[in-house]
Specification:
about 220 residues, binds zinc ion, three-stranded antiparallel beta sheet, five-stranded mixed beta sheet
């Protein structure tokens, strides 16, 4: 049976409701003018046919890359499980990954991108596997930080499902670091977030990492 979450009940569920950004066409054209001015000053020939529309494309791409702020109402529907604290209630992990994600670092507005692995141990509610991808994108497609994306995914899943545990592993490359660096091999930044049973039981964390194929 499906159940509709009440967005007024919890801050993280609130963030999933629809919040269209109120940006008019007139504002967008003004922003295109600003970035055109910057690109021109920095050296771009904005009169070339290939770049004439670049400021416009850039603003639209930035808007699209940050549409996590607009919420995702499809995340508000969850499903009931059979779990009523029976003996096998806390035994099974649901794991999804790798889920590719792209974010913009809030310090430089340059991309960091990589893969997310999300696991949970259901109690009374589950969500469809595709929803885990939506949940990752909801928090990734913003001006943010890797650590925050991981924490928000974990907190969001807890708020939605009240599961027995949540595990989130992210590995990402940060262009703001790479573009200024001298290393040929780009390092991955890895972050983990554990909630509930994962926090308490190292064996569950090991099982999650092994299931994701992650060696550390
Ligand atoms: Zn940065
Ligand atoms: Zn349970």
């Amino acid at each position: 049976m499906s159940l509709h979450l009440d967005p007024t009940e919890d801050d993280f569920v609130t963030t999933m409701a629809l919040h269209p950004r109120d940006i008019s066409e007139e504002q967008l054209r003004k922003f295109e003018g600003y970035v055109g001015e910057i690109f021109r000053a920095f050296g771009m020939d904005v009169t070339d046919p290939g770049t004439a529309l670049t400021p416009r494309r850039y603003i639209r791409a930035l808007l699209d890359a940050t549409d996590g702020y607009e919420g995702d109402p499809k995340l508000l529907t969850v499903f009931e499980t059979e779990c009523r604290e029976g003996p096998d209630c806390r035994s099974s992990q649901v794991i999804e990954g790798p889920i590719p994600f792209f974010s913009l670092c809030e310090h430089h507005v340059l991309p960091f991108h990589g893969r997310a692995y999300v696991g949970y141990i259901p109690h009374e509610h589950i969500i469809g596997l595709s929803k885990l991808t939506r949940l990752v994108r909801l928090f990734a497609k913003r001006f943010t930080l890797q650590e925050r994306v991981g924490r928000e995914i974990a907190d969001g899943l807890e708020a939605m499902l009240q599961p027995h545990g949540v595990a989130v592993y992210l590995e990402a490359q940060h262009l703001c670091v790479q573009m200024r660096g001298v290393r040929e091999e780009a390092p991955y930044t890895k972050t983990t977030h554990w909630r509930g049973l994962y926090d308490a039981e190292p064996a569950l964390r090991a099982e999650f990492m092994a299931a994701c194929g992650i060696r550390r």
